[in-house]
Design a protein that fits this description.
- Keywords: Membrane, Transmembrane, Transmembrane helix.
- InterPro entries: DUF7704.
- This is DUF7704 domain-containing protein.
- The chain is mainly α.
- 68% of the residues lie in helices and 0% in strands.
- It folds into two domains: 142 residues, no CATH class; 33 residues, no CATH class.
- α2 packs across α3 and α5 runs antiparallel to α6.
- The longest helix has 27 residues.
- The two termini are 49 Å apart.
């Protein structure tokens, strides 16, 4: 069954703006710095341990290019896949993966110290991207996955037909004699009595 445009219309504008535009563009900025300005990337991440005038070791350069490629994949997956479908199951599946990546990204910053997670006064541009922007992305994904702003959680449809449920709820208690009868016998006697 092909998804309808109604599904996409049900996604609130703030989610669309952040997930289709803001976050992919910001993530491309991270890819740019990892690829084309690796020394700056390392200095902004942690100045005391950056290579400085000695230049980047080849292995560090390779790893930063790989990181830039992962940022690119993250941005493209989010921007292209979410634009390609209106299916909320696909949106939720992708956002669960990105939410896991958010927590992985935050964990990767742990060697910089626990204080860096909340010390806004000492953050630079890289720290704002590593922490605040990731916090915003994670909160946005959590809200989307919980259905915040999307008309509330949808109730699962009951598999029991309403008429059967009402009949069971309104039925008088069963006597031991009635328990011994098969449903067919019970139905025939009711029909005979009403005739």
């Amino acid at each position: 069954m092909r998804p309808t445009t109604e599904d996409m219309a049900n996604i609130p504008l703030p989610y669309k703006i952040f997930l289709l535009w803001v976050e992919p563009v910001a993530t491309l900025a991270g890819a740019y710095y990892a690829w084309f300005k690796p020394s700056t990337y390392l200095e902004w991440t942690h100045l005391p341990s950056s290579p400085g005038i000695l230049g980047l070791p080849t292995s560090t350069h390779v790893v930063l290019r790989q990181l830039g490629n992962l940022y690119l994949a993250f941005a493209l997956n989010e921007a292209i896949v979410l634009r390609a479908t209106n299916d909320l199951k696909v949106w939720r599946s992708l956002l669960i993966g990105l939410l896991i990546a958010d927590f992985g990204h935050l964990y990767s910053c742990y060697p910089l110290g626990l204080k860096m997670y909340y010390d806004l006064a000492n953050w630079n541009a890289m720290a704002y991207g590593n922490y605040l922007f990731v916090y915003c992305g994670a909160v946005t994904r959590i809200c989307f996955l919980l259905g915040v702003g999307m008309g509330g959680p949808k109730k699962a449809k009951s598999k029991v037909k309403k008429s059967v449920r009402l009949a069971l709820e309104d039925a008088p208690p069963v006597t031991p004699q009635q328990m011994n009868k098969t449903p067919a016998q019970s139905t025939r006697r009711k029909k005979n009595r009403s005739s």
